[in-house]
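Human: For the file, kindly provide a plain-text protein record giving the amino acid sequence and the backbone structure tokens, at your earliest convenience.
Assistant:
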Amino acid sequence: MRWQVHSEEPLYTDRWLDVRVADVELPDGRRLDYRLIRTAPGAGAVVTDDRRRVLLIWRHRFIPDSWGWEIPIGGIEDGEEPTSAAAREFEEETGWRPGPLRPLLRVQPSNGLSDSVHHIFRADGAVRIGPPTDPWEAERVEWVPLADVRDMVGRGDVTCGTSMAALLYVLTEP
């Protein structure tokens, strides 16, 4: 049951987001105006150490007015490869340089509203290079035991969908 898109018109556009209205036809023939958001892709990383800890950031998100643990993630710049963006964002937000990154998963965190895609990578180990260059990104940067992640999710300490998916996926690794 595929929806047919007849047209899309921009409602608001800036360098970060493109809000649109689409004229869609449902499988039963009804038509409606559907709001959607188009955004550039993002990239992030789950980095663990030899003690089975993961490096996370504790930050406030003003939209839901909540605090939570997240993996470092951010936008992919024009012409940048997702792997490079994940490494850059990790360094900027944590002050640590990740080891070699390998693909972990691709997440569409809100595919009923947005075409946003997050490319998530995995690394074993990181080297401290100094303080974060984007200190406003996080209140704290900490190595957290992977064994605590499931309880953190259950308590609501991890609410970011992409972070949650990536961390829980890592917990399933052999």
